[in-house]
Amino acid sequence: MAYPTVSAPYGFKPINRLDGMPYAGATRQIKIASGYAANVFNGDLVAVVTGGTAEKFAGTTSGSPVGVFVGCSYTNPTTKQKTFSQYWPTGTVAADAVAYVVDDPNAVFKVAVTNGSSVMSSAARAAIGSNMSIIQGTGDANTGNSAVSVLAGSENTTNTLPIRVIDIVEETATAADTFVELIVKINLHQYTQATGV
């Protein structure tokens, strides 16, 4: 059976831990400030900010995310019903809002490789061990899915780049040494940095 075509970026998807242990679905609930004015989609990177709340990580070539957003819950301000959502709709007013975040510093994720316009691209096996920058694509409010990816050609030794490449996804080879998905981890995880928020 052929591997499905990867036609667009989808954010960061947890697959396992750096030590090879399977990802068991563990998340941490981190408060979202009521009225927080940015969409946050399933697969987006997030950071903890002053005040202890989660916000979308907007960095591309530097910064320290705390993990990957995989959904949220809040009391809907219109229906007054508890809502579980794939994404955080910008400006939602809810005092009980929490993000579900895969925040394990050793978590490993699958991610698509795109060019600077979020169009699918590729990386070679030589990307393994390098650091890469992020493309902050626009997520889809209909599906709640992210469009974040890593930037093709950004592979470098620069220690401030936020993503470290662990492996390639063999099944996504489009040529002998051309892969459209990578396996990565957060290079500068917020929990392992000496400087706090």
Descriptors:
single chain; mainly beta; seven-stranded mixed β-sheet; six-stranded antiparallel β-sheet
Description:
- The chain is mainly β.
- The chain has two domains: 28-102, no CATH class; 105-188, no CATH class.
- It has strands at residues 13-17, 28-31, 45-49, 53-56, 67-75, 82-85, 98-102, 107-114, 131-132, 134-135, 149-151, 163-168, 173-175, 178-179, 181-186.
- The strands form three sheets. Strands 1, 8, 9, 10, 11, 12 and 15 form a seven-stranded mixed sheet that branches. Strands 2, 3, 4, 5, 6 and 7 form a six-stranded antiparallel sheet that branches.
- A hairpin with a 3-residue loop joins strand 3 (45-49) and strand 4 (53-56).
- The radius of gyration is 17 Å and the shape is globular.
- The termini are far apart.
- 43% of the residues are buried.
Task: Describe what is shown at a glance.
The protein contains no helices and 15 strands.
SSE inventory with pairings:
Layout: E1 13-17, E2 28-31, E3 45-49, E4 53-56, E5 67-75, E6 82-85, E7 98-102, E8 107-114, E9 131-132, E10 134-135, E11 149-151, E12 163-168, E13 173-175, E14 178-179, E15 181-186
Parallel strand pairs: 8-11
Antiparallel strand pairs: 1-8, 2-7, 3-4, 3-5, 5-6, 5-7, 8-15, 9-12, 10-11, 12-15, 13-14
Order of helices and strands: EEEEEEEEEEEEEEE
Structural class: mainly beta
Integer-rounded radius of gyration: 17 Å
**Parts with pLDDT < 50 across at least 5 consecutive residues:** none
How much of the sequence is in beta strands?
25-35%
Shape, principal axes of CA atoms: globular
Biggest sheet, open or closed, and with what strands and sense? 7 strands, mixed
Q: Domains counted in the coordinates: how many?
A: 2
